[in-house]
Write a structure and sequence with these properties.
heterodimer; A: 276 residues; MetI-like fold; globular; B: 252 residues; alpha/beta; 10 strands; 34% helix
Chain lengths: 276, 252
């Protein structure tokens, strides 16, 4: 257990610290000017010093990311299921969905903003949905297509209805593939929100500003410390979101990690509790 | 004719495209018997099983179970394959009650029956375990228990021990004989293994490859209960030699 915790937490944190140390070393050793690239400590300080100003903007982009991610997950699962279950729909929609991803998001972002309301939060969320749903759809289609055919036949031999077979066999069998798609979506979601803020600067919202506006402002003032600091912050938000989704995956698939059913999941007491 | 058979197959045939997989076949299986089908790959034995199970519709012929027509109808037999097909996300207990879960609400009676049967056959300690924590032999035992609690009179077992090592397989065969004797079910058992078919069955059907058909229907009168001594009994050896010649006649 201790070893596991060490590998899970200490090593990733160490790799992040090494990255920051290398960055610091390069900037100091090569006398990089602060308007080109700041020292990491200066970048961090640029964020902490202005935290009261930044906090609502961070909260805003986190909300956009989460709403968009959840929306993208729902849309992705919906398309994935109907496309996997209805071959005609799959043939009809798949080319269009691929096309939607082949278009550069940043190009589609501006017309989306115009359509959904420039300056509002709607186009931002729509862009996150746009980015997140696709890997989810693909993973759900693949997951449902690869359910063991013998297992489906066994269900048929038992006289199972399609509905029960779907819920009891096909859905649980697709949980792991689904999370592969969700994790890809999770890493892209924050980027989507940032592009969304670029295309639709949120002037209508309560903050009357956005992370994008802030970073652009800092950039035009040669305040590289703030630019790098916020970039770092966004990376941390992205990683955190990925970790949360991964944690959700572990929670949803206990059979991959444990050898016994959790006590509280048991339908009834049957044998003495065992922990692995 | 004597009492009506549990399973009656008459004139059942099946082709895929231009290949005749199963030539017209007649078969009567008496209730409570243990009948093995041996034959090389591609002799249509699994096709025959799929027809009996209702997964495949035959091109011709009739299949009746206790006098009822079951052509193309599922939900009438127990069915088990070489792959255990346990679902990894369910405990042993929940895997045993899988058939119930797939057709209706699982009751406390289902659960207690699952626990009882698991305890009786040595898996009581593992009721809360996920299948991945079990050995291959244990997994096959769970799969068989799942088949038993469907309460179907006819169990179709398609090479259930084919993937196990020789030692485990022998243990499983002896275990299966015990369970069969206690449960009073009718078993139709597919195997490649001639020893296995003789050790287990009352009757052995030998099939030939394409077009698949039954070339011999042999009675096995070795006394029950059987144990390891049977494997060297002269009657066992004679029967084995007869089956081997039927299977490999041309290669002698």
């Amino acid at each position: 257990m201790k070893r596991g915790l060490f590998a899970k937490v200490a090593l990733p944190v160490a790799s992040f610290a090494i990255l920051l140390a290398l960055w610091q070393a390069v900037v100091v050793m090569f006398h990089v000017q602060s308007y080109v690239a700041p020292r990491p400590l200066a970048a961090i300080q640029a964020v902490t010093d202005n935290w009261s100003l930044l906090a609502p903007l961070v909260l805003q982009i986190v909300k956009e990311t989460i709403y968009g991610f959840v929306g993208g997950a729902v849309v992705g699962v919906f398309f994935g299921v109907i496309m996997a279950k209805i071959p005609v729909v799959q043939k009809l929609l798949y080319p269009t969905l691929i096309l939607s991803q082949a278009v550069p998001v940043i190009a589609i972002a501006f017309p989306l903003a115009a359509i959904l309301g420039f300056g509002t939060v709607k186009p931002i969320i729509a862009i996150v949905v746009w980015i997140v749903f696709f890997p989810v759809t693909v993973s759900v289609i693949d997951g449902l297509a690869h359910v063991d055919n013998d297992l489906l036949n066994l269900a048929r031999v038992y006289g199972a209805s399609r509905w029960r077979t779907f819920w009891q066999i096909e859905v649980p069998a697709t949980v792991s593939p689904l999370f592969s798609g969700l994790k890809i979506g999770a890493t892209y979601a924050i980027t989507g929100a940032f592009i969304g803020e670029l295309a639709s600067p949120e002037t209508v919202g309560p903050a009357q500003s956005s992370i994008y506006i802030y970073i652009q402002h800092a950039n035009s003032n040669f305040n590289q410390a703030a630019v790098f600091g916020i970039t770092l912050l966004m990376a941390i938000i992205g990683v955190t979101w990925f970790l949360i989704v991964s944690g959700l995956e572990s929670f949803s698939t206990p059979w991959l990690r444990r050898s016994t059913v959790r006590r509280w999941r048991r339908a009834s007491p049957s044998s003495p509790a065992r922990e692995d | 004719m004597t009492s009506p058979a549990l399973l009656e197959i008459s004139g059942v045939a099946k082709s895929f495209a231009d290949t005749v997989v199963l030539a017209p076949t007649d078969l009567r299986i008496d209730e409570g018997s243990f009948v093995s089908i041996v034959g090389p790959s591609g002799c249509g034995k699994s096709t025959l099983f799929n027809i009996i199970a209702g997964l495949l519709a035959p091109d011709a012929g009739e299949v009746t179970l206790e006098g009822r027509d079951i052509v193309g109808a599922t939900g009438h037999v127990g069915y088990m394959l070489q792959k255990d097909l346990l679902v990894p996300w369910r405990s042993v207990e929940d895997n045993i009650t899988m058939a119930a879960r797939l057709t209706r609400r699982v009751t406390e009676a289902d659960r207690s029956e699952a626990r009882q049967i698991a305890r009786r056959y040595g898996l009581g300690e593992f009721l809360d375990h996920y299948p991945k924590a079990l050995s291959g032999g244990m997994r096959q035992r769970v799969a068989f228990m799942r088949t038993l609690v469907t309460h179907q009179k006819l169990l179709l077992l398609d090479e259930p021990f084919g993937a196990l090592d020789a030692q485990t397989r022998l243990d499983m065969q002896r275990w299966l004989l015990d369970v069969w004797r206690e449960s009073g079910r009718t078993v139709l058992f597919i195997t490649h293994d001639v020893d296995e078919s003789i050790f287990l069955s009352d009757r052995i059907l030998v099939m030939s490859p394409r077009p698949g058909r039954v070339v011999a229907d042999l009675a096995n009168t070795l006394a029950r209960p059987r144990d390891l001594d049977v494997l060297t009994d002269p009657q066992f050896v004679a029967l084995k030699s007869e089956i081997m010649h039927l299977l490999h006649g041309g290669e002698r």
